[in-house]
Amino acid sequence: MLLNAINIILLVSSIVYFGYILYFFIGLQRLKPTKLRNSEDLPKLSVIVVARNEEKTIKQTLRSLAEQNYPIFKYEIIAVNDRSEDATGEILCKLKNEISNLSIINIKEKVMNISPKKYALRKAVSTAKANFIATTDADCVHDPNWLRSYASLIVEDLGVATGVTRFYKESYETGFEKIWQEMQYIEYLSHHIVAAGSIGHNKGYTSNGNNQIFNKILYERYGERTLRDNIISGDDFFLIQAAEKYNYKLKFNISPEAVVKTLPQQTLRQVINQRARWASKVGNASKSVMTFSINTFVLYLGITLYPLFLILEPKYLNVLFFLIMIKIFSDTLYILYGFKKMKIKFNPKYYLLMELIHAPFIILCTLKGFFIGFSWKGSKYDKFVKGQTKNK
Hints:
The chain has 392 residues and is α/β, with parallel strands linked by helices.
């Protein structure tokens, strides 16, 4: 009797999951590229980069921002040195001498009950001079027309626009590393495709903080109530949901110039930590995001645990087969179309390998994020700031 009830729940969940994928698919079809604006029509912009212990990458990031095909008097770069313990601060001081539109904010200490990253962003936003603010990470590299592609999306009631971030890695140490890095790459991009599909309906499921632009008025007017300062992660995640809630326009930037390159997580442990951090904030998401997330969790948990049920009831093997096929068919539908839409090369070999472990991987990361915690920037956290420990 219990297994029959579980079967019904999982079958309904799989159908709902397929419905969501169709929803994202239709949203993707609505996205259109935008022509780059002429120089005389470009708005003023602020670019914020928060850096903590990024001595290896911060120089390349800021130089790619300094070399933008954008009038220098129309944009500023604000770099926040967030308690760095390496040479990040020294590098920033040297770069200040060669990049005329760069300003630096130094943060010395943590502030109680506020996520360090969110506090750093608040400090930077408070000094930003432009009405629209772009954010990126200190390990990213940008196309010369990156800012111009976002400027082309700006309208008065734009809340958030975001885009695609791709991994770049010159070589792999082993064949095994190449396999799991390629799998990570596909799984990472699948989140972008979900974001793009939902934005096609002007729904804010998630955004990409290392490749986005937002309305400063939205941030200042609703930030304190919606960004969940006491939750360690999710400044981008909560911001786009606030934009939807308060009826701002959302856009996904599919222009080739908008693609940002970043380094991938370097170890499997880092990948799990990152995904656990992402999962930890979902419990405070909007109702629509929560509904999608809970349904997905139920389906993935069922796929992960169902082989145990088969030990008692092997006759239900066909149910497990159906659930797996629904997931694979649904995922393939939107990932193939999403990669094509964004002009990203698709490798079916690594995709199929990723699909084989995807459900248990997501369950592992979700449970870790909710119940165990994660490491980030040298500190251990649960999802709330009060759970932080001293820096290691």
